Amino acid sequence: DQQVKQNSPSLSVQEGRISILNCDYTNSMFDYFLWYKKYPAEGPTFLISISSIKDKNEDGRFTVFLNKSAKHLSLHIVPSQPGDSAVYFCAASAGGGSYIPTFGRGTSLIVHP
Amino acid sequence: ETGVTQTPRHLVMGMTNKKSLKCEQHLGHNAMYWYKQSAKKPLELMFVYNFKEQTENNSVPSRFSPECPNSSHLFLHLHTLQPEDSALYLCASSQEDRAEAFFGQGTRLTVV
Fold it and tell me: Which of A4, A43, A104 minimises the CB distance to B106?
């Protein structure tokens, strides 16, 4: 049974608009969450993370929101750029991020010029 | 060279072949990992090494055999694989068991 779910396999957004990628988790022990970005023919690259003691973390155009009661997190990209087109993986970890994360299936984001 | 480097980038092998995947990290990390990514599936953790000691083996078939001679190098030895083993194999490293891992570019493996 998947503990980290990314229910949208793909998302298409116009350049300049907001991209919202969603992720749900089932394991209550998860307390640290990460987003990775993957281009074709490359390995995933760490993008941004958030601890469960926060509900928001921002880094430039990227913001991650965490709703613990709903066991839901989302990644917002504003404004979206064509270079953001990639597969985005959500991951969750326990022990304050000291445990190896569990990954979702990924969401393919396409940003149209 | 910096980061995490994997060789080869692409590999085609027959079911009776023996081959090895290599991973090298120049980040000073002491934990290294092998992941498998199949189409439309989550990244699957295969093996974990901390300070050269294997600390996790996620029920991986014995036809996959890892080796970690030092904290900078990791190998995955392959023998008598099946076509369903065709996937992208990713190596990663991190500081101990920190969740923020750095990945290599992967080896695209095709078993024929």
Answer: A43
